[in-house]
Design brief:
Layout lengths: L1 E7 L4 H8 L4 E7 L1 H10 L4 H15 L6 E4 L17 E3 H10 L4 E6 L2 H16 L4 E6 L3 H6 L3 H17 L4 E4 L19 H12 L1
Parallel strand pairs: 1-2, 1-3, 3-4, 5-6, 5-7
């Protein structure tokens, strides 16, 4: 049984990852919504927030029996780069970027938090450069305000509509960049966009 430690920036993401947990894996969770709140207030991932995120990741990496650490927040994702950890520390959206761009083509990447746009675009651009995929990274208007108001039905509905529109506009693949967006995939009619929980956990299993 592979023990994967997940660092979340939202308590609600714990259930999403538990539901996506693959056979042979066991998950432990730590939620740090304060880190995302700080990044939103600062307008992005600042060095102090990056350091605090790395400290949280390192603490999980040092827990007994943990074999891999998975950072599930896209805004905080770049914090894994260069971390001195005794075990693999992965960002959940790295595997998503690879999956979305694997076959080249035109890839639409949807976000709902403004602070996620820059790190997401950088991550997907690196993956796309290897396959010749073209990217369009965009924000789903109004979605994050709905989530902050507790209106998850509207949050997921807006995301699903944006994904359907992206496919209709010619995207060969659509990726929902943030883990919290994953439930919207089930609302899509026609093609289903890629989401990060299952893809990220599979990558964690492979890295353990």
């Amino acid at each position: 049984m592979t023990l994967i430690a997940c660092l979340h920036s939202a308590e609600s993401n714990i259930a999403l990852f538990d539901a996506a947990c693959p056979p042979g894996a066991r998950l432990v969770h730590v939620a740090r919504p304060d880190l995302l709140a700080a990044a939103e207030a600062a307008g992005g991932l600042t060095p102090p927030i990056r350091d605090a995120t790395r400290d949280a990741l390192f603490a999980l990496a040092c827990e007994a029996d943990v074999e891999v650490v998975l950072l599930t927040c896209s805004t905080l994702g770049p914090s894994v780069e260069g971390i001195a950890s005794p075990i693999p520390c992965l960002r959940v959206d790295a595997a998503l970027a690879q999956a979305a761009t694997r076959d080249g083509g035109r890839v639409a990447v949807l976000c709902t938090v403004a602070t996620t746009l820059a790190p997401t675009e950088a991550l997907f651009a690196t993956a796309a450069a290897k396959t010749g995929a073209t990217l369009e990274v965009s924000l789903v208007a109004g979605a994050w305000n709905a989530r902050k108001a507790g209106d998850l039905a509207t949050y997921h509905g807006l995301i699903a509509a944006a994904a359907e529109a992206a496919y209709a506009a010619g995207a060969t693949e659509v990726a929902l960049a943030q883990a919290s967006m994953a439930p919207a995939a089930a609302l899509c009619r026609g093609r289903v966009p890629l989401t990060s929980p299952a893809i990220g956990l599979a990558a964690a299993m492979a890295a353990a």
